[in-house]
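Quick log. Single chain, no ligands specified.
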Amino acid sequence: MSKRHLLFNLSIIIFPWLTLLFIGKKSFKRFSWAGIFVVLFEIINHLYGNKRGWWKFYDKRKLFIKDELPFSIGPYMPLSMWILKVSYGNFKKYIMLNAISDGIFAFIVMDILKKFKIIRLNRLNRIQFFIYIHYKAYLLYGFQYLLEKIKSFLLFRKPQETM
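-> predicted structure:
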């Protein structure tokens, strides 16, 4: 792995996770299950996208652990938790924030990563890639919504009477 790629991988893992020091204990507990869900789902998506050749890493030796995995465990969970913290309960705001962050990644960051010879799109154009990363926002919100409903049901259900 090139030094540039190693530094990039470390930075996309460490910096997003450091921001969670400021999210608050209550918010971390509230949104961490949705964050774990999105990481696991993203790993599956990355394995599928890798197999389909949707992107290409410039380093010659291709390894999921050094290529796709840092994207899965780095920015996805912290960013998802922050967006949920800032916008959960306001679906329009949530989708708008996700669309903006996904758009920045698909249309700006991918160009930067290509320029630095980290990764480039291969079998997807930018709009297809945007859809690939954006559709997960709906799953994430739905997962958090279900968690909130289950928690609410378990906390506020009436105790059963004994006969």
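The chain has a mean pLDDT of 91.
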